[in-house]
Amino acid sequence: MSYDQLAIWWSSSSDDEVEEKENEVAAHEQVSDNVAKRFDLFFAAADVRTQARLQKALDVMHSAIDIFGLEGICFSFNGGKDSTVVLHLLRIVVAKRVLQETQLAQIQAQQEAEGATTTITSPRNSFVSSDLLEEADLEKRVQKQLQRVPVMYFDSYDQFPEIREFTDQCTKKYALNCHVYKCSFVEGVKDILEKLKIKGVYMGVRGGDPYTEDMEHFSPSSPGWPPFLRVNPILRWTYADVWDFLRDCQLDYCSLYDHGYTSLGNIFDTVQNPELWRSGEDGKEGYYLPAYELKDGSSERCGRQKKAHTTSKS
């Protein structure tokens, strides 16, 4: 939420709520750009269940890179909250790999200087301080590695403009190697698989999404699709897990979620979640709470409704 959004939200909120939100925005603007450091702090403060889900997500993403390499796996990004979680997890995983490689290089250089010949290896889950590199240097190295991972984004006439704007911002901010498609998902996947020899696709799929009953963290593509491996790092995450991660790590997400949207489809089948509507008091207008205020995750898709519309094609 920006200060402009804060001003709009203020008109229907109490003084205490406004002060709390101002402090939240200020804290967000001062946060470190070191995503690995923010993640490590979040992980350390999390309960055992959350830590297990976080670690599983990282393990799945690491394994896919170990198997296919950065150039052999792509990321399907649609700008929604789940896909955004996977984007930031990918940044974290790449940052941790950069830090581990840097640490190993330093140890090996020191050993060579001392005349040692022992080969040093580092377990994938071993902790490496995010302070090993200067913040700007780490981000530069992370972006260089991220550019090796192709990103698929499917644009369409019925896309929310806020989604399009957010994905464009992410592409520029994180220097993503983004391939924009204006065709069906099947056609786009087939194209990128053939052109870039992709073997696996990171996806922001969670249990409870349509057609996920038989999904695993690693699942082959469906019959009739080009052959590839679906990689689903957050398959076992809940709605609350998603928002705890995004907000506690103070990570970017699409602005629509600050205005009552909880599950984003297209402009013809998505409305604000009625569960988040609040009537105004003392003559103030009603308003929608942000998505992270939804208490019952099973109501996540209550804003998915078919709306009558007409289209024209030139």
UniProtKB/TrEMBL annotation:
One Pfam family in the UniProt entry: PAPS_reduct
Keywords carried by this UniProt record: ATP-binding, FAD, Flavoprotein, FMN, Nucleotide-binding, Nucleotidyltransferase, Transferase
Single biological process term from Gene Ontology: FAD biosynthetic process
Substrates-to-products reaction catalysed: FMN + ATP + H(+) = FAD + diphosphate
GO MF terms held by the record: ATP binding; FMN adenylyltransferase activity
Residue ranges of domain Phosphoadenosine phosphosulphate reductase in the record: 73-183, 186-270
Enzyme Commission code(s) on record: 2.7.7.2
Pathway: Cofactor biosynthesis; FAD biosynthesis; FAD from FMN: step 1/1
Keyword Flavoprotein annotated: yes
Protein name: FAD synthase
